[in-house]
Amino acid sequence: MNSPPNSSMDDMIARATLDNFSVFSILTVPGIERLSESEQVAVAKKAEQRLVSSAPLDPDALRSRLQSITPPLDQEEEDEEARMLEAQARKHLESDGCPACYPPHLDVPVRNPPEEYKQIIEYWHSLGSTGDVVLCAQKADWRDFRAFQTRVRRRHPTFDTIIDDVRERRRRHGLRGNVDLFPDLQQQTRQQNWLEFQNYHLRQQEQLETKRDNLMEELATVHQSTSNMNTMTCEHATQNEEARMRSLEFTERTLGWHRVLLAWIEQQRLAMDSVPPTCVEKDSDNLTTLAVASDATPSGNLPGPPKHCQARKRTPGPFHSQRVSKTEKFADAGTKSRRGIQTRRRPTPWRLHSVSGALKTRSGRISKPPVRWVPE
């Protein structure tokens, strides 16, 4: 088969048409059957390039093509998945002692939160990849903190350095509260873990502030040095200055959002401190205190019981009716008369009583008479 001249092939390309349908397109090139297989491929590619580049963009056609490739999202399915993930994240947070940033009665996804929860929810949205699953972002941050707790205890040779570091950081930020942590995380209460969580984010805040200060110093240095540079070097320095400016703006924006998180953490800490610890936490703390004191105190000089275990001195006053538990109500049942007046029974005297007569055992041996204590 003789190859047609180039003018004939260009004419075929010029007369080619492209028909677009919803899911496919048809390219028509008149006379292309006279060409060889390799020439047909070359002409078809050139004709398609000419038609695609010269054709105006049709938004409706583009939308229909995209819908045929990617099916439309089902918003109800997306919301249902978000509700499931948020419920799982809430369960994980609350079981590990971390309060969720919004209550369970709000509709999920939370798109119009009340004013008291708005800022902390917006903080988690500021992370970028949160989407509708706010508690999932909070759970990821809490997991990072729990891993940091374990990691920091392995790094420091003595636990006192950790406590000193926490106390010093709280002093710098003007925060109050007793710092009482344990090497074993299983011994710590919810309040103690939360105080350490606050220290974890205060540490991140200081790192961001150090980064911001370093960027400001670098910008001041670059700005002073650009006045003594030539044109090409000055352009390069200007580009570096613009990059540092963008990084400084991002760091300051991150600092602003991080202050929102720290304010919420302090609010939750104050709420936890206002709630007394449970009986289990009290017993755990007292046992730990007694164990440490017994190790540090010589034998015979053990400390007394904790304050809440000591008997209170009662001062005389007017009679008030009080609720008494069943244990207390029936503890002194044998020492109360029918009229309700408390009396004390006289103890029954005991004396030695000798049993008269000799006793024989089964083997016939005579045994010594026993002496017993018997009541009079």
Task: Describe this protein's structure.
The structure is a single chain. By secondary structure, the protein is mainly alpha-helical. It is built from eleven helices and six strands. The chain has a two-stranded antiparallel sheet. A hairpin with a 4-residue loop joins strand 1 (17-20) and strand 2 (25-28). Helix 1 crosses helix 2 (37-54), helix 4 (75-95) packs parallel to helix 6 (134-155) and helix 8 (190-225) packs antiparallel against helix 9. The longest helix is centred in the last third of the chain and has 44 residues, at 231-274. It is elongated, with a radius of gyration of 42 Å. The termini are far apart. Residues 278-356 have low confidence and may be disordered.
Structure summary:
The protein is mainly α. The chain is 56% helix and 6% strand.
- Indicate the percent of residues in helices: 55-70%
Overall body shape: elongated
Average pLDDT metric: 75
Please report which band the strand proportion falls in: under 5%, 5-15%, 15-25%, 25-35%, 35-45% or over 45%. Answer: 5-15%
Note the main sheet: 2 strands, antiparallel
The number of distinct β-strands equals: 6
Number of helices: 11
Q: List SSEs in N-to-C order.
A: HEEHHHHHHHHHHEEEE
Strand order of the largest sheet: 1-2
List low-confidence stretches.
278-356
